[in-house]
Amino acid sequence: MRILVLGGSGKIGSAVAWDLARDPEVSAIGLMGRRREALEQVQGWLKSDKVAVHPVGIDDRDGLVALMTQYDAGALALPDRRSSYKAVEAAIAAGLPIVDMLEEYHRTPDPYEVEGLETPPGMSLEEYGEWLHRQAVERGITFLDGMGFAPGLSNITLGDGIRSLDSAEVAIARVGGIPAKEAAAAHPLRYMITWAFEHVLREYMIRLKVIQEGQVVEVEAGSERERFRFAAFGRDEELECAVTPGMPSFITSRPQLRQFAEKTIRWPGHWEGVQTLKECGLLDLDEVEVGGVRVVPRQVLLACITPRLLPRPGDTDVCVMYNTLIGKKDGRTVQVEYLMWDEADREHGLSSMMRATGFPVAIAARLLARGEIREKGIVPPEDGIYGPLYQRFLAELAARNILIEERRTVLD
Protein backbone atom coordinates (compact mmCIF):
# COMPACT_ATOMS: atom_id res chain seq x y z
CA MET A 1 0.00 0.00 0.00
CA ARG A 2 1.04 3.61 -0.66
CA ILE A 3 0.34 6.27 1.97
CA LEU A 4 0.79 10.04 1.74
CA VAL A 5 1.57 12.04 4.90
CA LEU A 6 0.55 15.69 4.59
CA GLY A 7 2.58 17.83 6.97
CA GLY A 8 5.30 15.22 6.83
CA SER A 9 8.06 17.49 8.11
CA GLY A 10 6.40 18.12 11.49
CA LYS A 11 6.91 16.03 14.59
CA ILE A 12 3.56 14.24 14.40
CA GLY A 13 3.76 13.70 10.64
CA SER A 14 7.26 12.28 10.99
CA ALA A 15 5.99 9.89 13.69
CA VAL A 16 3.25 8.69 11.32
CA ALA A 17 5.88 8.03 8.66
CA TRP A 18 8.21 6.35 11.19
CA ASP A 19 5.51 3.84 12.06
CA LEU A 20 4.56 3.22 8.43
CA ALA A 21 8.19 2.69 7.41
CA ARG A 22 8.40 -0.34 9.70
CA ASP A 23 5.48 -2.13 8.06
CA PRO A 24 6.43 -4.45 5.16
CA GLU A 25 2.89 -4.11 3.83
CA VAL A 26 3.54 -0.39 3.17
CA SER A 27 5.46 -0.09 -0.09
CA ALA A 28 5.65 3.69 -0.42
CA ILE A 29 5.42 6.69 1.93
CA GLY A 30 5.06 10.21 0.62
CA LEU A 31 6.05 13.22 2.73
CA MET A 32 4.24 16.35 1.56
CA GLY A 33 5.04 19.87 2.74
CA ARG A 34 6.18 23.29 1.57
CA ARG A 35 9.92 23.02 2.28
CA ARG A 36 12.03 20.40 0.54
CA GLU A 37 14.89 20.79 3.03
CA ALA A 38 12.65 20.03 6.02
CA LEU A 39 11.12 17.02 4.26
CA GLU A 40 14.56 15.67 3.36
CA GLN A 41 15.67 15.97 6.98
CA VAL A 42 12.78 13.69 7.99
CA GLN A 43 13.57 11.38 5.08
CA GLY A 44 17.14 11.08 6.34
CA TRP A 45 15.96 10.40 9.89
CA LEU A 46 13.63 7.64 8.70
CA LYS A 47 16.42 5.81 6.85
CA SER A 48 13.97 4.06 4.55
CA ASP A 49 14.08 3.73 0.77
CA LYS A 50 10.27 3.68 0.77
CA VAL A 51 10.12 7.42 1.47
CA ALA A 52 9.67 10.08 -1.22
CA VAL A 53 9.46 13.82 -0.59
CA HIS A 54 6.90 16.07 -2.27
CA PRO A 55 7.47 19.83 -1.80
CA VAL A 56 3.92 20.89 -2.65
CA GLY A 57 2.18 23.83 -0.98
CA ILE A 58 -1.31 23.47 0.44
CA ASP A 59 -2.52 26.27 -1.87
CA ASP A 60 -1.40 24.41 -5.00
CA ARG A 61 -4.74 22.69 -5.49
CA ASP A 62 -3.93 21.12 -8.87
CA GLY A 63 -0.53 19.88 -7.74
CA LEU A 64 -1.98 18.49 -4.52
CA VAL A 65 -4.80 16.62 -6.28
CA ALA A 66 -2.35 15.18 -8.82
CA LEU A 67 -0.06 14.02 -6.01
CA MET A 68 -2.92 12.42 -4.08
CA THR A 69 -3.97 10.27 -7.03
CA GLN A 70 -0.64 8.40 -6.66
CA TYR A 71 -1.52 7.06 -3.19
CA ASP A 72 -4.00 4.66 -1.59
CA ALA A 73 -4.67 6.68 1.58
CA GLY A 74 -3.65 9.97 3.17
CA ALA A 75 -2.78 11.03 6.72
CA LEU A 76 -3.22 14.70 7.60
CA ALA A 77 -0.80 16.11 10.19
CA LEU A 78 -1.41 19.78 9.45
CA PRO A 79 -1.19 22.51 12.10
CA ASP A 80 -4.35 24.58 11.58
CA ARG A 81 -7.86 24.65 10.22
CA ARG A 82 -7.06 26.53 7.02
CA SER A 83 -4.56 23.90 5.90
CA SER A 84 -6.70 20.98 7.03
CA TYR A 85 -9.82 22.01 5.13
CA LYS A 86 -7.87 22.74 1.94
CA ALA A 87 -6.32 19.27 2.16
CA VAL A 88 -9.70 17.66 2.78
CA GLU A 89 -11.21 19.34 -0.28
CA ALA A 90 -8.30 18.20 -2.44
CA ALA A 91 -8.48 14.63 -1.12
CA ILE A 92 -12.19 14.37 -1.89
CA ALA A 93 -11.55 15.70 -5.40
CA ALA A 94 -8.72 13.17 -5.83
CA GLY A 95 -10.76 10.26 -4.50
CA LEU A 96 -8.27 9.66 -1.68
CA PRO A 97 -9.49 8.20 1.66
CA ILE A 98 -7.95 10.23 4.48
CA VAL A 99 -7.52 10.42 8.23
CA ASP A 100 -7.08 13.78 9.99
CA MET A 101 -5.96 14.38 13.58
CA LEU A 102 -7.17 17.99 14.02
CA GLU A 103 -9.36 18.84 17.03
CA GLU A 104 -12.22 19.79 14.75
CA TYR A 105 -15.25 17.90 13.54
CA HIS A 106 -15.28 19.08 9.95
CA ARG A 107 -18.96 18.28 9.49
CA THR A 108 -19.85 20.94 12.10
CA PRO A 109 -17.04 23.54 12.03
CA ASP A 110 -17.05 25.90 14.99
CA PRO A 111 -17.23 29.65 14.25
CA TYR A 112 -14.48 30.87 16.57
CA GLU A 113 -10.95 31.95 15.55
CA VAL A 114 -11.19 30.39 12.12
CA GLU A 115 -7.38 30.44 11.51
CA GLY A 116 -7.84 31.57 7.90
CA LEU A 117 -10.37 28.86 7.07
CA GLU A 118 -11.96 29.76 3.74
CA THR A 119 -15.43 28.65 2.67
CA PRO A 120 -16.78 28.76 -0.89
CA PRO A 121 -18.45 32.12 -1.71
CA GLY A 122 -21.91 32.45 -0.19
CA MET A 123 -21.58 29.30 1.93
CA SER A 124 -21.82 29.38 5.73
CA LEU A 125 -19.58 27.22 7.92
CA GLU A 126 -22.49 24.91 8.72
CA GLU A 127 -23.36 24.56 5.03
CA TYR A 128 -19.69 24.02 4.20
CA GLY A 129 -19.35 21.08 6.59
CA GLU A 130 -22.42 19.36 5.19
CA TRP A 131 -21.26 20.10 1.64
CA LEU A 132 -17.92 18.41 2.35
CA HIS A 133 -19.74 15.40 3.80
CA ARG A 134 -22.02 15.08 0.76
CA GLN A 135 -19.10 15.42 -1.64
CA ALA A 136 -17.26 12.60 0.14
CA VAL A 137 -20.34 10.36 0.20
CA GLU A 138 -21.03 10.93 -3.49
CA ARG A 139 -17.44 10.01 -4.36
CA GLY A 140 -17.44 7.01 -2.03
CA ILE A 141 -14.65 8.50 0.10
CA THR A 142 -14.04 7.81 3.80
CA PHE A 143 -12.75 10.78 5.77
CA LEU A 144 -11.92 9.51 9.27
CA ASP A 145 -12.15 12.79 11.12
CA GLY A 146 -10.19 13.45 14.34
CA MET A 147 -8.20 10.25 14.79
CA GLY A 148 -5.10 10.66 16.95
CA PHE A 149 -4.76 10.80 20.71
CA ALA A 150 -7.45 13.34 21.54
CA PRO A 151 -9.56 13.31 19.53
CA GLY A 152 -9.09 9.70 18.57
CA LEU A 153 -8.29 7.26 21.35
CA SER A 154 -10.71 9.12 23.60
CA ASN A 155 -13.48 8.74 20.99
CA ILE A 156 -13.04 5.06 20.23
CA THR A 157 -12.73 3.97 23.87
CA LEU A 158 -15.83 5.82 25.02
CA GLY A 159 -17.63 4.78 21.84
CA ASP A 160 -16.92 1.13 22.59
CA GLY A 161 -18.04 1.57 26.19
CA ILE A 162 -21.33 3.12 25.12
CA ARG A 163 -21.98 0.21 22.76
CA SER A 164 -21.35 -2.25 25.59
CA LEU A 165 -24.08 -0.73 27.81
CA ASP A 166 -27.84 -0.89 27.53
CA SER A 167 -27.92 2.89 27.97
CA ALA A 168 -25.29 5.55 28.62
CA GLU A 169 -25.82 8.72 30.64
CA VAL A 170 -22.48 10.38 31.42
CA ALA A 171 -19.28 10.39 29.36
CA ILE A 172 -16.29 12.49 30.39
CA ALA A 173 -13.02 12.31 28.45
CA ARG A 174 -9.90 13.53 30.25
CA VAL A 175 -6.82 13.59 28.05
CA GLY A 176 -3.63 15.58 27.72
CA GLY A 177 0.03 15.79 26.87
CA ILE A 178 2.13 17.06 29.78
CA PRO A 179 5.83 17.34 30.60
CA ALA A 180 7.32 14.52 32.63
CA LYS A 181 7.05 15.52 36.28
CA GLU A 182 10.73 16.39 36.63
CA ALA A 183 10.55 18.64 33.55
CA ALA A 184 7.32 20.41 34.51
CA ALA A 185 8.86 22.46 37.32
CA ALA A 186 11.39 24.02 34.94
CA HIS A 187 8.83 25.52 32.54
CA PRO A 188 6.26 28.32 32.92
CA LEU A 189 2.71 27.09 33.48
CA ARG A 190 4.19 23.65 34.23
CA TYR A 191 3.85 23.04 30.51
CA MET A 192 6.11 22.08 27.61
CA ILE A 193 5.35 22.44 23.90
CA THR A 194 4.58 19.09 22.26
CA TRP A 195 1.98 20.38 19.79
CA ALA A 196 1.41 23.50 17.65
CA PHE A 197 1.28 25.97 20.55
CA GLU A 198 -0.54 28.74 18.72
CA HIS A 199 -3.34 26.27 18.04
CA VAL A 200 -3.29 25.19 21.70
CA LEU A 201 -3.95 28.79 22.77
CA ARG A 202 -6.88 28.92 20.38
CA GLU A 203 -8.32 25.86 22.12
CA TYR A 204 -7.95 27.68 25.45
CA MET A 205 -9.89 30.76 24.29
CA ILE A 206 -12.88 29.72 22.22
CA ARG A 207 -16.36 28.77 23.34
CA LEU A 208 -17.36 25.15 22.81
CA LYS A 209 -20.32 22.84 23.11
CA VAL A 210 -20.91 20.30 25.86
CA ILE A 211 -23.98 18.37 27.00
CA GLN A 212 -25.45 19.28 30.38
CA GLU A 213 -28.67 17.74 31.70
CA GLY A 214 -29.40 16.41 28.23
CA GLN A 215 -29.07 19.81 26.54
CA VAL A 216 -26.31 21.06 24.26
CA VAL A 217 -24.92 24.28 25.71
CA GLU A 218 -21.94 26.53 25.01
CA VAL A 219 -19.31 27.08 27.68
CA GLU A 220 -15.97 28.85 27.92
CA ALA A 221 -12.83 26.80 27.27
CA GLY A 222 -10.94 26.33 30.53
CA SER A 223 -14.10 26.16 32.62
CA GLU A 224 -15.36 23.26 34.77
CA ARG A 225 -11.92 22.66 36.29
CA GLU A 226 -11.53 19.37 38.08
CA ARG A 227 -8.75 17.76 40.13
CA PHE A 228 -8.38 14.00 40.21
CA ARG A 229 -5.89 11.29 41.09
CA PHE A 230 -4.45 9.09 38.38
CA ALA A 231 -3.65 5.71 39.91
CA ALA A 232 -2.67 3.16 37.26
CA PHE A 233 0.42 1.77 35.54
CA GLY A 234 2.39 2.20 38.74
CA ARG A 235 1.66 5.95 38.94
CA ASP A 236 -0.13 7.91 41.63
CA GLU A 237 -0.38 11.54 40.55
CA GLU A 238 -2.65 14.47 41.27
CA LEU A 239 -3.69 16.10 37.99
CA GLU A 240 -6.08 18.81 36.88
CA CYS A 241 -8.30 19.18 33.83
CA ALA A 242 -10.63 21.73 32.26
CA VAL A 243 -13.08 21.76 29.37
CA THR A 244 -11.66 22.11 25.85
CA PRO A 245 -12.98 21.34 22.34
CA GLY A 246 -11.12 18.05 21.94
CA MET A 247 -13.75 15.65 20.58
CA PRO A 248 -16.69 17.71 19.25
CA SER A 249 -18.15 14.88 17.16
CA PHE A 250 -19.77 13.38 20.29
CA ILE A 251 -22.20 16.30 20.42
CA THR A 252 -23.89 15.02 17.27
CA SER A 253 -22.88 11.35 17.21
CA ARG A 254 -23.97 10.59 20.82
CA PRO A 255 -26.85 13.01 21.52
CA GLN A 256 -28.49 10.53 23.91
CA LEU A 257 -25.99 11.38 26.65
CA ARG A 258 -27.23 13.38 29.61
CA GLN A 259 -23.76 14.76 30.26
CA PHE A 260 -20.70 14.96 28.04
CA ALA A 261 -17.48 16.98 28.04
CA GLU A 262 -13.89 16.61 26.93
CA LYS A 263 -11.30 18.00 29.34
CA THR A 264 -7.59 18.61 28.81
CA ILE A 265 -5.26 17.29 31.50
CA ARG A 266 -2.47 19.43 32.92
CA TRP A 267 -0.34 19.50 36.05
CA PRO A 268 -1.95 21.42 38.94
CA GLY A 269 -1.40 25.17 38.61
CA HIS A 270 -1.47 25.26 34.82
CA TRP A 271 -5.12 26.19 34.41
CA GLU A 272 -4.91 28.83 37.14
CA GLY A 273 -2.01 30.42 35.26
CA VAL A 274 -3.90 30.32 31.97
CA GLN A 275 -6.90 31.98 33.62
CA THR A 276 -4.65 34.77 34.89
CA LEU A 277 -3.31 35.35 31.38
CA LYS A 278 -6.86 35.47 30.04
CA GLU A 279 -8.00 37.96 32.69
CA CYS A 280 -5.01 40.19 31.93
CA GLY A 281 -5.92 40.21 28.23
CA LEU A 282 -2.68 38.53 27.18
CA LEU A 283 -4.49 35.89 25.11
CA ASP A 284 -6.62 38.43 23.23
CA LEU A 285 -6.37 38.95 19.47
CA ASP A 286 -7.57 42.56 19.44
CA GLU A 287 -4.70 44.97 18.91
CA VAL A 288 -3.55 47.35 21.65
CA GLU A 289 -1.17 50.28 21.42
CA VAL A 290 2.19 50.04 23.17
CA GLY A 291 4.53 53.02 22.85
CA GLY A 292 2.83 54.10 19.63
CA VAL A 293 2.99 50.60 18.11
CA ARG A 294 -0.08 48.44 17.50
CA VAL A 295 0.49 44.89 18.74
CA VAL A 296 -1.60 41.73 19.22
CA PRO A 297 -1.32 40.61 22.87
CA ARG A 298 -1.34 36.89 22.06
CA GLN A 299 1.42 37.30 19.49
CA VAL A 300 3.55 39.17 22.04
CA LEU A 301 2.93 36.44 24.60
CA LEU A 302 3.84 33.74 22.07
CA ALA A 303 7.10 35.52 21.26
CA CYS A 304 7.99 35.80 24.94
CA ILE A 305 6.89 32.45 26.28
CA THR A 306 7.56 30.01 23.43
CA PRO A 307 11.36 29.82 23.98
CA ARG A 308 10.69 29.09 27.66
CA LEU A 309 8.29 26.25 26.85
CA LEU A 310 10.49 24.37 24.40
CA PRO A 311 11.94 21.08 25.67
CA ARG A 312 15.42 21.33 27.13
CA PRO A 313 17.99 18.56 26.61
CA GLY A 314 16.74 15.52 28.46
CA ASP A 315 13.16 16.77 28.87
CA THR A 316 10.49 14.22 28.00
CA ASP A 317 6.71 14.20 27.96
CA VAL A 318 3.76 11.99 28.97
CA CYS A 319 0.34 11.43 27.42
CA VAL A 320 -2.40 10.72 29.95
CA MET A 321 -5.98 9.53 29.51
CA TYR A 322 -8.64 8.98 32.14
CA ASN A 323 -12.11 8.60 30.63
CA THR A 324 -15.23 7.74 32.62
CA LEU A 325 -18.57 6.48 31.41
CA ILE A 326 -21.68 5.83 33.51
CA GLY A 327 -24.75 3.99 32.31
CA LYS A 328 -27.01 0.98 32.73
CA LYS A 329 -26.37 -2.69 32.03
CA ASP A 330 -28.90 -5.40 32.93
CA GLY A 331 -30.68 -2.96 35.22
CA ARG A 332 -27.51 -2.07 37.17
CA THR A 333 -25.61 1.21 37.19
CA VAL A 334 -22.14 0.60 35.77
CA GLN A 335 -19.05 2.80 35.57
CA VAL A 336 -16.48 2.12 32.84
CA GLU A 337 -13.04 3.76 33.03
CA TYR A 338 -10.29 3.91 30.40
CA LEU A 339 -6.78 4.76 31.54
CA MET A 340 -3.50 5.33 29.70
CA TRP A 341 -0.08 6.61 30.77
CA ASP A 342 2.36 6.71 27.86
CA GLU A 343 5.96 7.93 28.08
CA ALA A 344 8.47 9.08 25.48
CA ASP A 345 10.62 6.61 23.57
CA ARG A 346 14.09 7.99 24.23
CA GLU A 347 15.81 5.25 22.23
CA HIS A 348 14.16 6.26 18.95
CA GLY A 349 13.74 9.98 19.67
CA LEU A 350 9.94 9.83 19.78
CA SER A 351 8.05 12.00 22.24
CA SER A 352 4.96 10.53 23.84
CA MET A 353 2.82 12.99 21.87
CA MET A 354 4.41 11.74 18.66
CA ARG A 355 3.63 8.15 19.69
CA ALA A 356 0.12 8.63 21.09
CA THR A 357 -1.00 10.82 18.18
CA GLY A 358 1.08 9.63 15.25
CA PHE A 359 0.77 5.88 15.74
CA PRO A 360 -3.07 5.82 15.85
CA VAL A 361 -3.08 7.91 12.66
CA ALA A 362 -0.69 5.48 10.98
CA ILE A 363 -2.80 2.48 12.03
CA ALA A 364 -5.96 4.19 10.77
CA ALA A 365 -4.32 5.06 7.44
CA ARG A 366 -3.60 1.38 6.89
CA LEU A 367 -7.23 0.51 7.62
CA LEU A 368 -8.33 3.09 5.06
CA ALA A 369 -5.87 1.86 2.45
CA ARG A 370 -7.22 -1.69 2.89
CA GLY A 371 -10.83 -0.50 2.74
CA GLU A 372 -11.61 -1.87 6.20
CA ILE A 373 -13.55 1.21 7.34
CA ARG A 374 -16.67 0.97 5.23
CA GLU A 375 -18.58 4.09 6.29
CA LYS A 376 -18.42 6.93 3.76
CA GLY A 377 -18.35 10.70 4.12
CA ILE A 378 -17.07 12.48 7.22
CA VAL A 379 -16.84 9.69 9.78
CA PRO A 380 -15.95 10.31 13.44
CA PRO A 381 -13.65 7.72 15.03
CA GLU A 382 -16.39 6.33 17.30
CA ASP A 383 -18.43 5.42 14.20
CA GLY A 384 -15.56 4.09 12.11
CA ILE A 385 -13.56 1.92 14.54
CA TYR A 386 -15.72 -0.41 16.60
CA GLY A 387 -16.44 -4.08 17.23
CA PRO A 388 -13.67 -6.44 16.02
CA LEU A 389 -11.89 -3.48 14.38
CA TYR A 390 -11.68 -1.75 17.78
CA GLN A 391 -10.13 -4.83 19.37
CA ARG A 392 -7.59 -5.06 16.55
CA PHE A 393 -6.81 -1.38 16.96
CA LEU A 394 -6.08 -1.84 20.68
CA ALA A 395 -3.88 -4.84 19.85
CA GLU A 396 -1.93 -2.72 17.35
CA LEU A 397 -1.43 -0.04 20.02
CA ALA A 398 -0.30 -2.65 22.57
CA ALA A 399 2.26 -3.94 20.07
CA ARG A 400 3.70 -0.41 20.17
CA ASN A 401 3.59 -0.41 24.00
CA ILE A 402 0.66 2.00 24.14
CA LEU A 403 -1.54 0.30 26.71
CA ILE A 404 -5.12 1.20 27.58
CA GLU A 405 -6.60 -0.27 30.76
CA GLU A 406 -10.37 -0.76 31.03
CA ARG A 407 -12.03 -0.97 34.45
CA ARG A 408 -15.68 -1.80 35.07
CA THR A 409 -17.42 -1.19 38.38
CA VAL A 410 -21.02 -1.91 39.37
CA LEU A 411 -22.18 1.13 41.35
CA ASP A 412 -25.49 -0.27 42.65
Q: Can you give a write-up of this model?
A:
The protein is an alpha/beta fold and 412 residues long. It is built from 14 helices and 18 strands. The strands form four sheets. Strands 3-2-1-4-5-6-17 form a seven-stranded parallel β-sheet, with helices on both faces. Strands 10-11-12-7-15-16-18 form a seven-stranded mixed β-sheet. Strands 8-9 form a two-stranded antiparallel sheet. α3 crosses α4. It is globular and about 55 Å long. The mean pLDDT is 96.
How would you sum up this structure in a few lines?
This protein has 412 residues and is an alpha/beta fold. Helices cover 35% and strands 28% of the residues.
SSE layout and pairings?
Blueprint: E1 2-6, H1 11-21, E2 28-33, H2 36-46, E3 51-55, H3 61-68, E4 73-76, H4 81-94, E5 98-100, H5 125-138, E6 142-145, H6 153-164, E7 167-179, H7 181-184, H8 197-205, E8 207-212, E9 215-220, E10 226-232, E11 235-243, H9 250-253, E12 259-266, H10 270-279, E13 288-290, E14 293-295, H11 297-309, E15 317-329, E16 332-343, H12 352-369, E17 377-379, H13 381-384, H14 388-399, E18 405-410
Parallel strand pairs: 1-2, 1-4, 2-3, 4-5, 5-6, 6-17, 7-12
Antiparallel strand pairs: 7-15, 8-9, 10-11, 11-12, 13-14, 15-16, 16-18
Helix pairs in contact: 1-12, 3-4
